[in-house]
UniProtKB/TrEMBL annotation:
<protein>
    <recommendedName>
        <fullName>CoA-binding domain-containing protein</fullName>
    </recommendedName>
</protein>
<dbReference type="InterPro" id="IPR003781">
    <property type="entry name" value="CoA-bd"/>
</dbReference>
<dbReference type="InterPro" id="IPR036291">
    <property type="entry name" value="NAD(P)-bd_dom_sf"/>
</dbReference>
<dbReference type="Pfam" id="PF13380">
    <property type="entry name" value="CoA_binding_2"/>
</dbReference>
<feature type="domain" description="CoA-binding">
    <location>
        <begin position="8"/>
        <end position="100"/>
    </location>
</feature>
<feature type="compositionally biased region" description="Basic residues">
    <location>
        <begin position="170"/>
        <end position="180"/>
    </location>
</feature>
<feature type="region of interest" description="Disordered">
    <location>
        <begin position="157"/>
        <end position="180"/>
    </location>
</feature>
Length: 202
């Protein structure tokens, strides 16, 4: 029996039973998120014609291609029958979304040799592992506490004779200011060291 993460990593095609037309429903945006990460989504809903740019099938039995995972957004009372349909089409796994738990569906999946996940969001599992289709984890574009050092581009060289009048005096004042500041810092450090020595001696 594969783990939830292994099932998702091995999958290429996900049939979504109960796919919703409402963008605010998890049964819509969770499959949409998987599709954005390159899984093929096959919606199953008898009341829709097209979703996610794909043809919508009324039943699992109508899907003409192989299905790796049957993702279920239906009440727990329907789970057992969905497992039977998934086994009949040769699907590899059945995945029940959060809040959907069925002892009978679990038993039927085990008897049919299907991998089985329940009460777990397939979208959350993908997000936690940062997975894309094929089980790969792409490099993160986000800097995690490290800011790249960018060297400034060199500016034009200004000849000494072209410096504005008075710039020499300003440079000398800036040098004196920096020198005085260094002296103050050194003096403060010496005082702090003396205080620490007195505390240690006492």
């Amino acid at each position: 029996m594969r783990t939830a993460r292994q099932i998702l990593a091995d999958a290429r095609t996900v049939a979504v039973v109960g796919a919703s037309r409402d963008p605010l429903e998890p049964a819509h945006w969770v499959p949409g998120m998987l599709q954005e990460q390159s899984w093929r989504i096959i919606p199953v809903n008898p009341h829709a014609v097209a979703l996610f740019g794909e043809h919508v099938y009324a039943r699992l039995a109508d899907i003409p291609c192989h299905v790796d995972v049957v993702d279920v957004f239906r009440p727990a009372a329907e789970a057992a029958e969905i497992v039977r349909e998934a086994a009949a089409i040769g699907a590899g796994a059945v995945w029940l979304q959060p809040g959907i738990v069925s002892t009978e569906a679990r038993r039927l999946a085990q008897e049919a040799g299907l991998d089985y996940v329940e009460d777990t969001c397939i979208g959350t599992e993908r997000a936690l592992s940062q997975m894309v289709v094929g089980g790969d984890t792409p490099p993160s574009p986000v800097y995690r506490g490290v800011v790249p050092c960018i060297e400034p581009e060199p500016g034009p060289v200004v000849p000494a004779h072209s410096a504005p009048y008075g710039s020499g005096r300003r440079d000398r004042r800036a040098c004196r200011h920096r020198r005085d500041r260094v002296r103050r810092v050194r003096a403060s450090s010496a005082v702090a060291a003396g205080v620490a020595a007195e505390w240690a001696a006492g």
